[in-house]
Amino acid sequence: KPPPGCRRLSALGAALGAFIALSFTLGLLGGPFRHRAPAAPRCRPRSHVVFLKTHKTGGSSVVNLLSRYGESRGLRFALPHRYQFGYPAPFRAERVRGFRPGGPRFDIICHHMRFQLSEVQRVMPNDSFYFSIVRDPGAVAESAFSYFRAAAPAFRNSPSLGAFLASPERFFRAGQRGNHYARNLQWFDFGLPEPAHPGQIPELLGGLER
């Protein structure tokens, strides 16, 4: 027969074990001991969207999704009269089919363009959500060299990408039709001006981010 002290410890251990088991069960069932995180705000779909489709970054897949999304909700797309809103010239509102000053705005624009914010704002509502895709410039250059070889004389006249990178001035002629594909395509598509010196690049990128 155990001494009285041992009996008291056994009873205490049993009670403690029962309390832990009960607390664990209540926690699983969402009882009063469970900490409840505040409910996350519900997502609300956006119906005014500006997607700048940059070259060789996977933008066609996003355009496919946006097209399905907009069509299923009866949204109004800003479409070009002909091809890519006159690219490589900067975007102008007049290049949108159906645009008229003071007329109704569009819901989605998602084609290739050389971005120009002030002109896009003439076409799209003020609450539009703007986004794009950026990709490592080296990977873009490699993809562009292969894809635009026939369209860009600077690429076509170069025996290889390595030769072009080693001495681009040998092959690139500014203003020659198609040679915009041989520039930094993302910088060009975002409508950024040529930096006067390398130190100006962070300032220009900061403006774009804002």
TrEMBL record:
Highest rank taxon of the organism: Eukaryota
Localization, UniProt: Golgi apparatus membrane
Keyword Nucleotidyltransferase: no
Signal peptide residues on this chain, from the entry's feature table: none
GO MF annotation list: galactosylceramide sulfotransferase activity
One Gene Ontology biological process: glycolipid biosynthetic process
Pfam families from the UniProt entry: Gal-3-0_sulfotr
Keyword entries, A-Z: Glycoprotein, Golgi apparatus, Membrane, Signal-anchor, Transferase, Transmembrane, Transmembrane helix
SUPFAM superfamilies attached to this UniProt entry: P-loop containing nucleoside triphosphate hydrolases
Keyword Membrane: yes
Gene Ontology cellular-component annotations: Golgi membrane
Cross-referenced InterPro entries: Gal-3-0_sulfotransfrase, P-loop_NTPase
TM annotation in the entry: none
Membrane topology: Single-pass type II membrane protein
Main subcellular location: Golgi
Family named by the database record: Belongs to the galactose-3-O-sulfotransferase family.
Protein name per its UniProtKB record: G3ST4 sulfotransferase
Organism: Molothrus ater
